[in-house]
Specification:
142 residues, alpha/beta, 5 strands, globular
């Protein structure tokens, strides 16, 4: 699961209506919220992300239940993961545990307006990405 190629890493927090996107810096030190897009446009936006930002890997939030089991949303993400791999075979897609990322985003930046609510999806993606970047740093130091 370790990403060995150098370059930026992106993360997706896939919801039913919105997809939050986060992006790392080139050194893979920082995870920053990038944008939130309508779910209906996610393939077009992932394509644009790949062309413009050139991430070597895209992390997809994998929503297991708190007991570690699969839910309907988990199954939906597995299907979306397979579609992304099929549509963008040159890009590595990795499923990554996203439990509590949305709750952390809401706590870190409570949404009061529609704009803040939309940004919370990108913040959740940044939490997912930050978790993965921490994993990479730990693997590098071992």
């Amino acid at each position: 699961m370790y990403t060995s190629k150098e370059g930026k890493i992106a993360a997706l927090d896939m919801g039913d209506q919105w997809v939050g996107i986060a992006l790392s810096d080139i050194t893979r030190t920082l995870a920053k919220p990038f944008t939130t897009v309508p779910f209906a446009d996610y393939k077009k936006e992932v394509s644009k992300l790949i062309v413009e930002q050139r991430p070597v890997t895209i992390i997809i939030g994998y929503p297991k239940t708190m007991r570690g089991t699969e839910s309907e949303q988990t199954k939906k993400i597995l299907t979306l993961h397979a579609e992304l791999e099929k549509n963008f075979p040159e890009t590595v897609f990795i499923l990554w545990d996203e439990r509590l990322s949305s709750k952390r985003a809401q706590t870190a930046s409570p949404a009061r307006t529609r704009e803040e609510k939309l940004k919370s999806h990108a913040i959740a993606a940044a939490f997912i990405l930050d978790s993965y970047l921490g994993y990479l740093a730990m693997q590098k130091n071992m």
